[in-house]
Design goal:
Helix content is about 40%, strand content about 25%. By secondary structure, the chain is of the alpha/beta class. It has an eight-stranded mixed beta sheet with strand order 1-2-4-3-5-6-7-8, sandwiched between helices. Strands 9, 10, 11, 12, 13, 14, 15 and 16 form an eight-stranded mixed beta sheet that branches. The radius of gyration is 25 Å and the shape is elongated.
């Protein structure tokens, strides 16, 4: 269950916050430019990120004034006002000292708070952030005026769409996954209105906290993905050079959003910095129906067509599969050569999707073999792994051309669905213990 949302009044504004975890230290998460603490729990990526943080601390989440579940407004709110909101939350939950974890736009306010209230700040963690957002002759890392005008115009006209929230820049790993792009756009719509976003970004354009960096005397960890596209890694290096004793960790990755990509690498660094050690979390386990779809005689077909024509055929094949997956609420997990791996929360839908894929690719002159199995999988980010995935692959490898082959688990779970099967008998799956009874979907 998501944690309960509560409110504290700061001046004349109600600030929404949540508390989860019961660790020995307090960690206040300062979000980027917009957030929604209730919509957060609708995302498996965000949920996993925050639950991992809450495994070693008491985690405090909040929506800044003007965004999310806090009181809305399109006026520009200052760093000083937001700092006062943080103080009100910490007082309300009885926190005498807390570590602040500021990401992106949340970084400058976290820096100001740590410099102003060192006795209330046990540590400072900064991710993907900056001391100054705009480029000047003495600070080459920020956006120039042309980029700022593009951003503000885009938010004004397209906010709430994939283009408007700049998925390609904030989380390029999600590109090509329409369902994930749609979820991200919906989250940002829930987080703020276009007017609020524009007001926030206009304030960000003027931010410059370089002058306070020498005043920061709390332990500071700076994290940054070196290839991310929103905030140049030069920002992080500048912070590390001007904050006494700061530790800089540069991480691989292209995503600005911390819970997309290798989120555990980020949390590992945070945990070790705050506690002195990092735990190895148990992988998240979920029940899923795994569907493998492979092109029959792909090697011979590729040799006959040549590299370019084969690549174009594969691209057309992938487009068709993705179109059908959306119709049946399937989730793309991976593509490898001529194969396609997808996951479903129901086995009947997986079988019907496989049948629809067969029909959709017939105009391409492609014949498929499909295999499905339902079992418990390990989930890491958007990927699935574990014995259930291996079983699904082995089942698909035994399917005849044009056939949808399923394990007995799948057949048993779809009882009453109207789907019919032929018994293919028991067989041994390579690398999997025991015998497995397989069935052909009619």
């Amino acid at each position: 269950m998501p944690p309960e949302t509560r409110y504290v009044k700061s001046d004349d504004v109600h600030i929404a916050y949540q508390v989860l975890g019961d660790g020995p230290l307090d960690l206040l998460f300062v979000p980027g430019f917009v957030s929604n603490i209730e919509a957060t729990w609708q995302s498996p990526e965000r949920s996993a990120f925050f639950l991992r943080l809450a495994s070693f601390c008491r985690l405090i989440l909040f929506d800044k004034r003007g965004t999310g579940m806090s009181d809305r407004g399109s006026q520009i709110f200052t760093l000083e006002q937001r700092m006062h909101d943080v103080q009100a939350i910490l007082d309300e939950v009885g926190s005498k000292r807390a570590a602040l974890f500021g990401i992106s736009e949340g970084g400058p306010m976290s820096l100001l708070y740590a410099a102003t209230f060192p006795d209330r700040t046990s540590a400072l963690i900064l991710y993907g952030t900056y001391a100054k957002r705009s480029r000047t002759p003495d600070y080459p890392y920020g956006w120039d005026d042309k980029r700022w005008e593009q951003v503000l115009d885009n938010y004004e006209r397209r906010w709430g769409t994939s283009e408007g929230v700049e998925v390609a820049l904030r989380a390029p790993s999600l590109m090509g996954n329409p369902e994930a792009e749609t979820r991200m756009a919906a989250y940002y719509r829930a987080a703020a209105s276009p007017g609020a976003v524009v007001a926030i970004m206009k304030m960000n354009r003027e931010i410059d906290v370089r002058g306070i960096l020498p005043s920061i005397r709390v332990p500071t960890l700076i994290l940054h993905r070196v290839a991310e596209r929103v905030s140049d890694v030069g920002h992080a290096r500048y912070l590390a050079q001007h904050i006494s004793g700061a530790k800089l960790v540069e991480l691989p990755g292209v995503d600005h959003v911390p819970w997309i990509g290798d989120r555990d690498a980020i949390v590992d660094e945070v945990e070790e910095f705050l506690t002195g050690a990092r735990q190895t979390p148990d992988p998240e386990r979920v029940l899923a129906t795994i569907l493998f779809v492979d092109i029959v005689s792909s090697t011979e077909r590729a040799a006959a067509l040549g590299d370019r024509a084969w690549r174009e055929l594969l691209e057309a094949f992938h487009r068709k599969v993705r179109e059908v997956l959306r119709q049946f609420r399937g989730r793309e997990i991976d593509t490898a050569g001529d194969g396609f791996l997808a996951a479903f929360d129901g086995p009947a839908r997986a079988i019907r999707c496989a049948d629809a894929i067969r029909e959709a690719v017939r105009p391409l002159g492609i014949e498929l073999r499909c295999g499905a199995h339902t079992g418990e999988c390990e989930r890491t980010g958007e990927k699935l792994a574990g014995i259930a995935v291996h079983i699904g692959a082995r089942v698909a490898a035994l399917a005849d051309p044009g056939e949808i082959l399923v394990s007995q688990t799948v057949r048993d779970l779809v009882a009453g669905s109207g789907l019919a099967f032929d018994d293919r008998g028991a067989t041994v799956l390579k690398g999997v213990p025991g015998e497995w009874r397989l069935f052909r979907a009619k």
